Amino acid sequence: MTLRRLAQHTARLAPMIALAFLTIPAAHAQVVTVSGKYQCAEAHVAGKMVPCSSAPLTLKTDGRFELRGWEGNYLVDGEWVELSDTQVRSRAKLEPGHKIVFRYRGKHGWCEMVYLRRVAELGKTSLG
């Protein structure tokens, strides 16, 4: 095939290729919605499970959060949610099943707090 014939074929195919790109819908990134109330479901301190008595974590739709009097803003970055106020910043991992897991070094060793999203259905509240 000569260079001239290749150019002619390309010129004929170009409008069809352009039309195909225009008609294919654009792929949109999934938006992770994490807003809601989360109840502490598990707590591990130094590798041992302990009763979880932490206050609920509330992530509001406007990007603000509340946790036992601590208020500030949160930002979802991939599989992480970052909580911050003017002085403190904390990062937690988002896991399947509407879980938010905080891992940090406390005064008794490594701690892990697992929060599960509370789902309200027909006036009934359950963890889920």
List its salient traits.
51% strand, elongated, disordered C terminus, alpha+beta, eight-stranded antiparallel barrel, Lipocalin, 128 residues, 1 helix, 16% helix
Task: Provide a brief overview of the structure.
With 128 residues, the protein is α+β, with helices and mostly antiparallel strands. The chain has one helix at 3-23; strands at 36-45, 48-50, 57-59, 64-67, 70-77, 80-84, 89-95, 99-106, 109-121, 124-127. The protein has one domain: Lipocalin.
Q: Over the alpha carbons, how many angstroms does the gyration radius reach?
A: 25 Å
Mean pLDDT: 79
Q: At CATH's second level, what is the architecture?
A: Beta Barrel
What is the third-level CATH name, the topology?
Lipocalin
Largest sheet: 8 strands, antiparallel, barrel
Structural class: alpha+beta
Order of helices and strands: HEEEEEEEEEE
The total of helices stands at 1
Strand element count: 10
Overall outline:
elongated
CATH class: Mainly Beta
Q: Compute the separation of the termini in Å.
A: 64 Å
Largest sheet, spatial ordering of strands: 1-3-4-5-6-7-8-9
Query: Which range best describes the helical content: under 10%, 10-25%, 25-40%, 40-55%, 55-70% or over 70%?
Result: 10-25%
Supply the number of structural domains: 1
Strand content: over 45%
Uncertain spans: 124-128
What does the oligomeric state look like here?
single chain
